[in-house]
Amino acid sequence: MSGNSFGNIFRVTTFGESHGIAIGGIIDGCPAGLKIDLEYIQNELTKRKPGQSRITTQRKEEDEVEFLSGIFEGVTTGTSIGFLIKNNNQKSQDYSHIKDKYRPSHADFTYDAKYGTRDYRGGGRSSARETACRVVGGAIAKQILAHYNITINAYVSQVGDIKLLKHYNQLDLETTYNNPVRCPDKNLADVMFNFIDKTRKEGDTIGGIVSCVIKGTPLGLGDPVFDRLEADLAKAILSINATKGFEFGSGFDSVTKKGSEHNDEFFIENDTVKTKTNNSGGIQGGISNGEDIYFNVAFKPVATIMQKQNTVNTNFEEVTIDGKGRHDPCVLPRATIIVESMAAITLVDHLLRNRTSIL
Amino acid sequence: MSGNSFGNIFRVTTFGESHGIAIGGIIDGCPAGLKIDLEYIQNELTKRKPGQSRITTQRKEEDEVEFLSGIFEGVTTGTSIGFLIKNNNQKSQDYSHIKDKYRPSHADFTYDAKYGTRDYRGGGRSSARETACRVVGGAIAKQILAHYNITINAYVSQVGDIKLLKHYNQLDLETTYNNPVRCPDKNLADVMFNFIDKTRKEGDTIGGIVSCVIKGTPLGLGDPVFDRLEADLAKAILSINATKGFEFGSGFDSVTKKGSEHNDEFFIENDTVKTKTNNSGGIQGGISNGEDIYFNVAFKPVATIMQKQNTVNTNFEEVTIDGKGRHDPCVLPRATIIVESMAAITLVDHLLRNRTSIL
Amino acid sequence: MSGNSFGNIFRVTTFGESHGIAIGGIIDGCPAGLKIDLEYIQNELTKRKPGQSRITTQRKEEDEVEFLSGIFEGVTTGTSIGFLIKNNNQKSQDYSHIKDKYRPSHADFTYDAKYGTRDYRGGGRSSARETACRVVGGAIAKQILAHYNITINAYVSQVGDIKLLKHYNQLDLETTYNNPVRCPDKNLADVMFNFIDKTRKEGDTIGGIVSCVIKGTPLGLGDPVFDRLEADLAKAILSINATKGFEFGSGFDSVTKKGSEHNDEFFIENDTVKTKTNNSGGIQGGISNGEDIYFNVAFKPVATIMQKQNTVNTNFEEVTIDGKGRHDPCVLPRATIIVESMAAITLVDHLLRNRTSIL
Amino acid sequence: MSGNSFGNIFRVTTFGESHGIAIGGIIDGCPAGLKIDLEYIQNELTKRKPGQSRITTQRKEEDEVEFLSGIFEGVTTGTSIGFLIKNNNQKSQDYSHIKDKYRPSHADFTYDAKYGTRDYRGGGRSSARETACRVVGGAIAKQILAHYNITINAYVSQVGDIKLLKHYNQLDLETTYNNPVRCPDKNLADVMFNFIDKTRKEGDTIGGIVSCVIKGTPLGLGDPVFDRLEADLAKAILSINATKGFEFGSGFDSVTKKGSEHNDEFFIENDTVKTKTNNSGGIQGGISNGEDIYFNVAFKPVATIMQKQNTVNTNFEEVTIDGKGRHDPCVLPRATIIVESMAAITLVDHLLRNRTSIL
């Protein structure tokens, strides 16, 4: 009820502030008997880790996950999986200058307003550091999805005005993580990299779009009415820091379309019902139809900039604030793995919920 | 868990197929002592009612709501509010031609795949008729919001390529329901009307955008991490039939912005913290900051068109299907009230959840 | 969150006051493809119906259930099942004398204290009339359990000091509903009947015990830690009006036992693990072990008596109150079916939750 | 959904096996601004700690709790509180002899049956060690209750046939923890101590009853119908290891009572509505009426005895098993604090849920 849990059957609950002792969480509802690849999980975490190139923050977070329960001799026991990631590299003094000032477009002001108190060292609970726990949950979810041959690939498709125009089928999504931008088009990735780096040097930040493709989803996931698969995906994705929009299938482009051009006609291929086009984005009436699920996510520019800004302090006086600390000029390169993780958690939850026959 | 409920404390659970005896629901968690204006609720339902002009379906649904419990002598008792809306005008024979055929971009196929059975008369549970129950829940939610001076106004801001370019502050949102299109710009409403009507005559359908503005939200609504206010709004909105995308505040436009131009600087006005711009859309770190909340919703063109289409039947044979029955050429005019209702339910739920002090 | 729902996956939500238009509910999460025997459901309701003999209240409630959705051509569709039972025979004038007085050991005072308002005609939401909706839910749950060969039999094992000493294996539980007391020992049932009738003539009421036996539960139902099967059964049962205690297996008798006499030793029979004794009551570590589940429920004497009592009124003045209206001298005969229903709902919920393998 | 969480708004989720690296949990929904007394929490844990006298297990668990988040400068921030307790003293070799044997009346068999796997070192998740986490949650809950002047006192009222006959008002409940039995009657505590010690020397174990009294509960806690306060307390209590029964107020004694003697007549004292007797146990219609809440809990004898027993092994062969390891001859002395903790968590959850007015 306080919004620190996600999922119904497969449920991830997280805790931890960016500058506390540790962050961590509990994964509940993971089926028993799942062989866990710890190296895979650590590898997923590394994709989110800061400090990987000069276009991400230079903070050195080790992000080493320790599992405390629920896994015995390398296999899940069906009980709750507790884990933690220690905060080794927090530099609390970096934040002392903003203890009494509300950073523009950050959560400092709303947290104080809601709770009357706040851990002012960094963003506390609103820091993107929390998302490392989602990556742990997602990495376990992905290992369940692997048993169903479901794959999830997110990638950066736009940074500022630089837009990847190719359809995802024209891209090799296995190469996404080969470059620091996480754009599977190598040439465009270079352009994006230079643009982000230039923005960084200007002390500024920039937004962009992460696209995501889910292949292999079986027929029948998602529930009617409120818990439609796209609705739950939307919630999952928009719970990620800095997101501003979500569209699936034809998305916002559909609004200018006629029904006669937008409808996905059915046909038969190998005794299976397929659609000729996939404007539905793999979901019809809230339920997966077996086609690819794909969606786009808008990310705003990072709020922390290396420039002087006007703001107010906790005494409600107008002041200015300087940019300081180690921050990302663009959140996109580190966001793809978070998008994948939240999508994976959502899918596993619906897989485990999907019991519609009597026996 | 089967997705027929929405909300945590203020919770709406619905039932009913489009061609069964009745649809209805239970509103749980409504505080006691709320004076209920039944005429207001009926009036809200009328805004959703089909058959109001020639650009909406000519089905005559009375949509008269009967309350069965939870209201005593005109005031809520704090107990669960049961209600129903009888289905008086269903014409089951209209649908006999599609009993064995899967309509393109409808839920027929996915429902059969998920449940192995389905009420083939109309869309059953996936019919937009279900949304009448959401309007009942929303109409009660709005009466709670009125005690907080919170107002919610949705309107049609785009139909096909016809786009309303004015900012919502330049519009008189009280006039939205004065025309059948539900666009508060009278002149543009006429253009939209003619375009929808032309589309209807061609046996086709068209998509569009509904915009929504929420004014008066107190500081502090929304929870950190997963149950951010925008995430719950996104889920609420994308659980509405025919939606394809959701963006709030600066939305997808933010992706091309620099942090220095996108950040909302704080200032003081009448001892209150305000933001100079509102790219945040009234929500920072998942929590309302007191500014206007606003968002856009993409709706696809209605799937039922009056044209022959290729599809498959329940025996997995390729067949054609004719357009028949009474349907909307554009879902937008009837969707505004549903958007408002889901937003209202979401806000009331967060209002009632928002208890952060010890006593 | 307002306590009108029970169950996680198989979830029953109810509404309705005793003297409103109707009571009813929504059953969510019922699997698709279940053939529904409507006569069976009505027959279960009849077991709870008042006015069946002179030891139950002489109110004539028809208790005819109408299903409004979720069942198509006699089979569940997997969507939410809405139903209602009209209140045809409420005599609101019977209650006018207690509009302003708090009946001792009733919920009048606590409802007013909690909600500041209440439907004073009868017990409103706290009336046992609400339990008719649980019987509807239970009757559908039992039809699911029948596919698993799980049977649930509750019976009256004690009324006042009159106690049935036989073990349930010595009784023919199929005969329970053959007599108005619902005690499967015909001779003792007669003694109980006469005692209840004598109590009734004295204008008084009497308590008793309902015992319940569940046979055929598969291994593995129930979750560790908080959602133990016995914990969920306890909650289900103690949510029934007038209950005061719950014990399962050896129950309160276990407190004087040594471990060496109380432990249930395992042995093998037909390649199956069995226990020699069943002090565990079929549940070990919160999880069913395949043996019979059995438990006892204490019911207090009905609070409404036909005698003058001291109490206070809504102005906080001390007054006397007369006994009036049509009430049960003993709740037990009508309670057995409610106990069975709540146990059935709990078991089906755990059956549907019990998914522990990956695929 | 996997039963590792308790509570709706104030929610405790736990993880950890008895012989893993650590146990721990997340407390979600704790209001902000609560000053946390860490010493108090540690002191509560010490009450549960084994090895405190020769009638409890001689295992040396330090049970030192570390808080990882949610508390900043000694005050709760309103965000999720993560904590862990390291397992320092597990002796896994103690359990090797039972790796392949199912201990009678333990959860070994049902866990294997449910999950197909299990951490065989000790009881794993079903070990009472898990309850240390509940004590942490309860100790925080009690600090919230202190702001409402609500007190909870549990004590041992029966061990085997030795029964404390005094009413709780005749006892000084503040002295309960002054003796190792946790019985507030010093003389009877000595008798109980000797009896438990004698039982221990015989290699046997014994059951008993814990009684609990809650004073100061405000009017209006508890919800109607399913989430009655007594139903939620029953679930909370019966989720504790080794419990077999729960009764509140007059409990099982009420079954022989007439309504005329059992009803609690109302009267006025200091402008407050009071009841002359309190058979209701402080709860009427599921809602607290301001009187003392009191209940009894039956605990069975501990299953691990120091005697040879018949059982079966994981190959489904009949074998014998020896008693070994360090175990409690009677669970009661360590159970009182767990009962208090679960009651405290339940009450705080209902306190925070109890919002029935519009504004």
Descriptive overview:
Four copies of one chain form a homotetramer. Chain A has a five-stranded antiparallel β-sheet, covered by helices on one side. Chain A has a five-stranded antiparallel β-sheet with strand order 9-8-10-16-11. The first copy, chain A, is globular. The first copy, chain A, contains seven helices and 18 strands. The two termini of chain A are 32 Å apart. Helices cover 24% and strands 22% of the residues of chain A. The first copy, chain A, has one domain (5-354): 4-Layer Sandwich (Chorismate synthase, AroC fold). In chain A, helix 1 (38-48) packs across helix 3 (131-146), helix 1 crosses helix 7 and helix 5 packs antiparallel against helix 7. Chain A is α+β, with helices and mostly antiparallel strands and 359 residues long. Chains in contact: A-B, A-C, A-D, B-C, B-D, C-D. The B-D interface holds B 9, 31-34, 78-79, 144, 147-148, 224, 352-353, 355-359 and D 9, 31-34, 78-79, 144, 147-148, 224, 352-353, 355-359.
